[in-house]
Specification:
- The chain is of the alpha+beta class.
- It has a domain of 127 residues.
- 22% of the residues lie in helices and 28% in strands.
- It has seven helices and 13 strands.
- The strands form three sheets. A seven-stranded antiparallel sheet has the order 1-6-7-9-8-10-11, covered by helices on one side.
- Strand 10 and strand 11 form a beta hairpin.
- Helix 1 runs parallel beside helix 3.
- The protein is elongated.
- It starts with a strand and ends in a 5-residue tail after the last helix.
Length: 269
């Protein structure tokens, strides 16, 4: 069982101001590598429950499309969610592997979350990479609490809980949020859409921490619906799902050939 060690104070940002919306929100969410590099994959796609959604609200979209780009830039954010029919083009979506996506959004002053769309970006004069980089960079200013835990194998386990924006989005800048290089990546889990559990991979015993990750996530979220019930390997902008086989309370972890190659190159202990 992981033991609580300490909390880190949150960081804060200052949203831009817009005029009052003239229509219904396009999307309303829950409050939505080592750096913010743009992941592979084209813009457009789908996201699942827990994230923002495209839909009616042309007046609001038109208002945002006509807003000054310097003001919009301050309010761009990313949301990490599951794939599915929840989003559709022209929403700006990037795959983070087969099971997770990042969605560009605009955070309004009243807390509404609006899915950014390609026509909006075109009106702002911003390309897809510019939207990604600005959205990821703005996550630096979001409130989140970071707790550190002891875990099996001498590992350090970290929990991020969002305060104003879902902490799961910090996945896209995990190394920066941890203040550490992640050459071998990290194990991550999402016990709900506002909580991110992470264990940097430092040695070959790190997979032993999977059971503690799930137990800690359950304690922190009191059994709320997880963003995903699986554990993932986050490495170079891709979240690969891990195959976890349970033997009593112990977890045996298998991953892709790429995961095996990287694990073979880290110290045994």
């Amino acid at each position: 069982m992981a033991m609580f060690r300490r909390n880190r104070p949150p960081a804060a940002g200052q949203p831009a101001q817009y005029g009052p919306p003239t229509g219904q929100p396009v999307a309303v969410g829950g409050g939505p590598g080592s750096g913010p590099g743009m992941p592979p994959g084209a813009v457009g796609g789908a996201a699942g429950p827990g994230g923002p959604a495209s839909g009616p609200g042309g007046d609001l979209r038109q208002m945002l499309a006509g807003a000054p780009v310097d003001r919009v830039r301050l309010d761009l954010r990313l949301v990490v969610t599951r794939p599915g029919p929840h989003l559709a083009p022209p929403a700006m979506v990037w795959p983070l592997g087969d099971e997770l996506v990042a969605v560009a959004c605009v955070k309004l002053p009243d807390g509404q979350i609006v899915t950014a769309e390609v026509p909006m970006a075109q009106a702002w004069g911003m390309g897809a990479e510019d939207v990604w980089l600005q959205s990821a960079t703005n996550l630096r200013g979001e409130h989140f609490a970071r707790s550190e835990f002891d875990a099996p194998g001498g590992a350090d386990m970290y929990a991020f809980v969002g305060q104003g924006w879902p902490a799961t989005a910090q996945l896209t800048r995990l190394g920066e949020a941890l203040g550490a290089d992640l050459p071998a990546g990290a194990l991550v889990a999402f016990p709900d859409d506002n909580t991110l559990i992470s264990v940097p991979i430092r040695n070959q015993r790190i997979p032993e921490t999977v059971s503690a990750m799930f137990a800690t996530g359950h304690e922190l979220t009191r059994g709320m619906q997880p963003l995903s019930p699986r554990a993932y390997w986050w490495h170079e902008g891709v979240a690969e799902p891990l195959d976890v086989q349970w033997h009593g309370q112990q977890a045996h972890v298998n991953g892709s050939a790429r995961f095996g190659q990287v694990m073979a190159g880290v110290p045994q202990r």
